[in-house]
Amino acid sequence: MLYSFIKNFPHAETYAYDVSRHNEHLFWEIPNFSRFWDNVEAIEGRFDCITLIHCLEHIGDIRKTASKLYTLLKDSGVVIIQVPDVAQNMWDIFTYDHCHHFSFYTLYKLFIDAGFYVSLPHHQIARQITLLASKQPLKQGIENPDMFYFDCKHLNDVLALLESLRTNGSSGGVFGTTISTFVALVLGEWAQCFYDEDKRKIGKTHLGLPIVSPSEGDGCEIVMPLGESLYAKLSAKYPKHHFIRAF
After folding, report:
1. Can you identify the CATH homologous superfamily of domain 45-134?
2. pTM
3. Considering the domain 152-245 in this protein, what is its CATH number?
4. I want to staple 107 with a disulfide (CB 3.0 to 4.6 A). Which of 1, 102, 178, 210 is the partner?
5. Nearest to residue 18, comparing CAs of 51, 64, 61?
6. Residues of the chain with CATH 3.40.50.150
7. Could you state, in chain order, the average pLDDT of each consecutive group of 10 residues for the chain (247 residues)?
8. Number of other CB atoms surrounding residue 28 within 10 Å
9. Which residues lie below 8 Å from residue 53, measured CB to CB, with a gap of 6+?
10. Chain centroid offset of residue 162 CA
11. Cα 110 to chain centroid, rounded
12. Burial bucket for residue 107 (CB in 10 Å: 0-12, 13-18, 19+)
């Protein structure tokens, strides 16, 4: 992120914070890098731009963090936040190293409560939320945040679907090997393999089950927990299989 920033703003000063100094040396290779902190309370100064890219979901006290960001930001500055979107990928709830799981509504509420104005950029990455926060009103303000409210009831409906598959006496596979791990555990013996397009994984095993390419076999039932866009893409690419929506 800082490398890209300095290419566009070559005379800017850059700073970094991390929970440890393990990778500190990498930051000092960046032109105009000024200071590194491993204690958030020790950070000094006020900044034009603060980025938290896949960071906030790993922090315990997010309200304290949002308040700290407000004090560190200049009046004309902007905070750029990106986190996984649990509304698009509800299985993120089971990512063990995420302390928090955000929908747009909960992320919006966090920064509004801390005193920020909030904007949602038009361009968004699939299954992620990118949010801008500032002390000043932004051009693309949010007029109706309630439209982004996420109802967790749908998760219970999908779990009920998986339970029905587990007990129907048939078998199939699960696409993916990350979030799909939990799905396979719910499915029990119904899940006989994992499907993946990653050539580095195909031919190996996960949870004792083979990882195979979806180009193999014919007429298999494959549970897809990874969202609408990938579901549509793979259903069209491998029409010989039956993909089951689990998202």
Report:
1. Vaccinia Virus protein VP39 (3.40.50.150)
2. 0.71
3. 3.40.50
4. 102
5. 51
6. 45-134
7. 90 94 95 94 95 95 96 97 89 84 92 95 90 90 61 83 95 93 93 97 96 94 91 96 94
8. 10
9. 1, 80, 81, 82
10. 23
11. 17
12. buried
